[in-house]
Amino acid sequence: MNIDISKAVQEELDIKIENATKYNGDIFRFTLSEGSKIDNYGDIVKYVDEEVKTLEDMKVVFIALINGLNRED
């Protein structure tokens, strides 16, 4: 008997990646600051497009992504 779990694994990975990139708590906290040009949100891609200017900024985003991927649901 073969059980194909690839679809379930793929769905779990998709959910984990979406949560880490679109609903990232670290990014949400960064956008709460007064210096942010836009309202608070947790979208990493949007944050990179609008806020990241230096390599140091990118390091912060990378750490936020790793933290988001490592969070337990």
Note down, in words, how this protein is organized.
With 73 residues, the chain is mainly alpha-helical. The protein has one domain. The protein is built from four helices and no strands. The protein has helices at residues 6-22, 25-30, 44-51, 55-70. The longest helix has 17 residues, at 6-22. It is elongated. The model has no long low-confidence stretch (mean pLDDT 87).
Keywords:
mainly alpha, elongated
Rg for CA atoms: 15 Å
Order of helices and strands: HHHH
Which segments are poorly predicted (pLDDT under 50) over 5 or more consecutive residues?
none
Biggest sheet record? none
**Overall residue-averaged pLDDT value:** 87
Outline, from the CA principal axes?
A: elongated
Strand portion, in percent? under 5%
State the share of residues found in helices, binned by percent: 55-70%
Strand segment count: 0
Task: Summarize this entry quickly.
The protein is built from 4 helices and no strands. With 73 residues, it is an all-alpha fold.
Helix and strand topology:
Blueprint: H1 6-22, H2 25-30, H3 44-51, H4 55-70
Helix pairs in contact: 1-4, 3-4
